[in-house]
Amino acid sequence: MALRVLVVGGGLMGAAAAWRLSARGHRVTVLERFGPGHDRGSSSGTSRIFRLAYPEPSYTQLALRALPLWQRLEEESGQSVLTLTGAVDHGSPETVDVLARVLAGAGRSVQRLSPGEVSDRWPGLRADTTAMYHPDAGRLHADDAVSALLKAAAQRGAEVRHGVCVTGIRHSGRTGEGVTVVTDTEDALTADAVVVAVGGWAPAFLPALVTGLPPMRVTQEQPVHFPAPDALDWPSFIHHPGAGFDQPGGVYGLGSVDGVKVGLHGVGKVVDPDHRDRTPDPAAVEWLRAYADAWLPGVAGTEPTPLTCLYTTTPDEDFVIDRQGPVTVLAGFSGHGFKFGPAIGDLAADLVEGRPGTARFALGRATPGH
Ligand SMILES: Cc1cc2nc3c(=O)[nH]c(=O)nc-3n(C[C@H](O)[C@H](O)[C@H](O)COP(=O)(O)OP(=O)(O)OC[C@H]3O[C@@H](n4cnc5c(N)ncnc54)[C@H](O)[C@@H]3O)c2cc1C
Questions:
Q1: What number of CA atoms fall less than 13 Å from residue 93's CA on the CB side?
Q2: Which CATH number does the domain housing residue 148 bear?
Q3: pLDDT per residue as tens digits for the range 314-329
Q4: 350 Cβ inside 6 Å of ligand 1
């Protein structure tokens, strides 16, 4: 039976849910408070890493579920969203060994490389101790991916409304009784179900709607772009902490049309998404410049351009993808959700249709320290 579904939030996750729901024949309306392609949330910019390598095999499986969906999205929308350039992981041998084992266990190709082999193949990169390469990885074109998802959803009948802020959601708590959504621009809208994908606004928006939400930290992260004429040829890379390199969360990077993007994972200051200054921290820019001088000969000595973006991080960095009554929640993507977008859209559609969710992503799960 076709359901009437409202999706709150038109970032990556709301757009992905809208595409997968409309692909299953549901009648979808997306409500997004800002304009198309805005840069106030988590999904804007020209690049995100796609990769299969994760220490936790279920994330590798989720990325494998996303890969053919990204390719199907390209066919449906006529837009290019994913370029496979491969990924290099290097640093702590223990970390690299686990990643290689998980990939091999999933039947995927993985190559072990010495630091010398990395430099020979990608002269812009210098690898620490152990390294590995997997080819099923690369660059998602972030802004294009969000617009392609919304376009593909619209082609399947979804309505996409920008400039509409949802100010309240009312429901009895019982599945089957529907929801009423109140906005700042029009009368209340009613539907069978609502999907809430409000990114960094989740900690303020969701507690009134669902129980068992894990605590979430909203931070302003600030990667930089280094200019490099060959940026689009770079693989994505992660320098994992360990083996004498002690930066918590490590360093990630990838080529993009804006240059080689390099960033730290989840170290930004806590912010209110409605009142953040968007001013890059000069000390963090300086740290990345020094990192490039030491580890990225391909961009050493160049002038980086910073940008800012929001992370919404749970204590275990696992996502929140669950349903209570008619409310499906997509939240807490902890700085690594983009690659899984259309697979998460599919999980949201499963929940809306009444299928069970995944324990790892459940509301009310135990999280470290809570
Ligand atoms: C610097 C940076 C680098 C990253 N790198 C990677 C990477 O390499 N690989 C990877 O997999 N992931 C990466 N991520 C993570 C990934 O980008 C996010 O997980 C993902 O974009 C989250 O999307 P979202 O839809 O949850 O949030 P958002 O994109 O913020 O979307 C939420 C939307 O909800 C809207 N909204 C909020 N409140 C309301 C309301 N009341 N009414 C209507 N609309 C509302 C907002 O305007 C916003 O558009 C990175 C993130 C950042 C910040």
A1: 6
A2: 3.50.50.60
A3: 999 999 999 999 999 9
A4: no
